[in-house]
């Protein structure tokens, strides 16, 4: 093959730039869409295969810990935590309603959920539903009532969800028992942090963090009362303006195969 | 035949990277190719692999190609200034490419230097040594 030339580099750079522009304008659809239909089975197979291998490796390493029993307990714990969050919220709503006896509240209809299969996962999720099925950027991704992330990009047949652990992700939230208000964000290490909590508020380990609700009607924000996770450690320094806590998500993302999407608009 | 094999490996790397691994496998492949070869192949593969990564991960097509092309060009320019196959050059080429890529894609973190940068660098270095010995 020929020696590398400056001309080829310039041509390839220009071509890449043209692809970015055409992609953003949505003009690559006629080429991309049929190809996507072909690669979906390949992506599903790769994901299933690699998940199987990684799960088998993990289970092999934890054989002596009776991993199946532990997994059942973990699943049960997740379910109980989410039920606890629901129950606590209902209890508080009940108290608030009793206090405001006589005031009629509007009936909030249930947001319809759209099921999607996870066909890829690295620092984001790839889902097998796209714009053709009505998915749009900003849609909320959940499983049970646990928040997973938000749709950040869609194509005709696929969509990409940004996870809570992503550095691009920010959610307004509060703790369930102490009512400490803050912002849930991801850091570049893949951790979920409950940040911007003033020093006067109380953060406690094991307290559940739920979304505060900040939908803006234009695809921004998150609905209220979705479970984010549980506080595992608190970092409070008197010299800082805010305190923060590390959150453990209530669901094991590596075992996630189906999620649900709800429209944010 | 060799090009077909390289293309297949690139497709597989892009597929695994998009669906299962949070490591830039394709970038490592392209960097090794840029260090090893003195022809136009790393540029062409950098472009194609970038398109594939974006396509498989539902990203903006062309974005990763731009980053890969910049990295390949930098390696090719600096390669001429160093002794061919200098292990320190190979180490720093992989190491700095990973830092640049992770920083530009917003994935860089000091807490993960070992797992996301040093460890992949050492593995890529080992692969490079085996590749050099075999070829």
How would the blueprint of this fold be written?
The complex is a heterodimer of chains A (265) and B (135).
Chain A: H1 6-25, H2 29-61, H3 67-99, E1 113-121, E2 124-127, E3 140-143, E4 146-154, E5 159-163, E6 170-175, E7 181-186, E8 192-198, E9 208-211, E10 227-235, E11 242-249, E12 258-262
Antiparallel strand pairs in A: 1-2, 1-12, 2-5, 3-4, 3-12, 4-5, 6-7, 6-9, 7-8, 8-11, 9-10, 10-11
Chain B: H1 2-19, H2 25-36, H3 41-56, H4 63-79, H5 87-104, H6 113-134
Helix pairs in contact in B: 1-3, 2-3, 2-4, 2-5, 2-6, 3-4, 4-5, 5-6
Main features:
heterodimer; A: 265 residues; alpha+beta; 6-stranded antiparallel β-barrel; 3 helices; 12 strands; 29% strand; globular; B: 135 residues; mainly alpha
What features would you describe in this structure?
The complex is a heterodimer of chains A (265) and B (135). By secondary structure, chain A is an alpha+beta fold. Chain A has three helices and twelve strands; from the N terminus they run H-H-H-E-E-E-E-E-E-E-E-E-E-E-E. In chain A, the strands form two sheets. A six-stranded antiparallel β-barrel of chain A has the order 1-2-5-4-3-12. Chain A is globular, with a radius of gyration of 22 Å. The termini of chain A are far apart. In chain B, helix 4 (63-79) packs antiparallel against helix 5 (87-104). Chain B has six helices and no strands. The two termini of chain B are 15 Å apart. The longest helix of chain B has 22 residues, at 113-134. Chain B is an all-alpha fold and 135 residues long. The model of chain B has no long low-confidence stretch (mean pLDDT 88). The chains are: A alpha+beta (265), B mainly alpha (135). Chain A binds chain B through residues 1-5, 8-9, 12-13, 15-20, 23-24, 28, 32, 35-36, 39, 42-43, 46-47, 50-51, 54, 119-124, 126, 153-155, 158-160, 167-168, 187-190, and chain B through 15-22, 38-44, 46-47, 50-51, 55-63, 65-66, 69, 73, 76, 106-109, 111-112.
């Amino acid at each position: 093959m020929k020696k590398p030339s400056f001309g080829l580099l310039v041509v390839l750079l220009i071509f890449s730039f043209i692809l970015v522009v055409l992609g953003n304008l949505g003009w690559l659809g006629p080429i991309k869409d049929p190809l996507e239909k072909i690669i979906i089975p390949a992506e599903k197979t790769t994901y299933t295969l690699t998940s199987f291998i990684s799960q088998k490796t993990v289970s092999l390493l934890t054989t002596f810990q009776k991993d199946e029993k532990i997994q059942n307990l973990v699943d049960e714990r997740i379910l109980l935590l989410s039920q606890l969050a629901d129950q606590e919220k209902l209890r508080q709503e009940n108290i608030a309603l009793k206090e405001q006896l006589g005031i009629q509240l509007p009936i909030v209809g249930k947001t319809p959920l759209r099921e999607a299969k996870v066909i890829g996962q690295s620092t984001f999720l790839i889902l097998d539903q796209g714009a053709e099925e009505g998915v749009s950027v900003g849609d909320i991704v959940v499983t049970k009532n646990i928040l997973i992330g938000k749709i950040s990009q869609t194509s005709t047949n696929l969509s990409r969800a940004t996870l809570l652990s992503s550095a691009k992700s920010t959610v307004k939230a509060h703790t369930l028992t102490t009512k400490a208000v803050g912002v849930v964000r991801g850091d570049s290490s893949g951790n979920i942090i409950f940040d911007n909590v003033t020093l006067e508020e109380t953060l406690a380990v094991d307290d559940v963090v739920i979304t505060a609700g900040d939908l803006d009607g234009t695809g921004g924000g998150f609905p209220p009362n979705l479970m984010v996770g549980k506080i595992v450690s608190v970092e409070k320094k008197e010299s800082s303006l805010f305190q923060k806590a590390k959150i453990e998500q209530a669901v094991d993302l590596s075992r996630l195969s189906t999620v649900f999407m709800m429209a944010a608009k | 035949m060799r090009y077909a094999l390289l293309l297949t490996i690139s497709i597989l790397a892009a597929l695994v990277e998009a669906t299962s691994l949070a490591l830039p496998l394709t970038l490592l492949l392209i960097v090794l190719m840029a260090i090893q070869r003195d022809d136009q192949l790393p540029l062409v593969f950098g472009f194609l692999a970038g398109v594939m990564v974006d396509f498989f991960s539902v990203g903006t097509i062309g974005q990763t190609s731009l980053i890969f092309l910049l990295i390949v060009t930098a390696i090719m320019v600096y390669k001429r200034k160093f002794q061919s196959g200098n292990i320190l050059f190979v180490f720093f080429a992989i190491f700095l490419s990973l830092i640049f890529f992770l920083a530009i894609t917003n994935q860089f973190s000091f807490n993960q230097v070992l797992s996301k940068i040093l460890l992949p660098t050492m593995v890529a270095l080992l692969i490079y040594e085996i590749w050099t010995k075999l070829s």
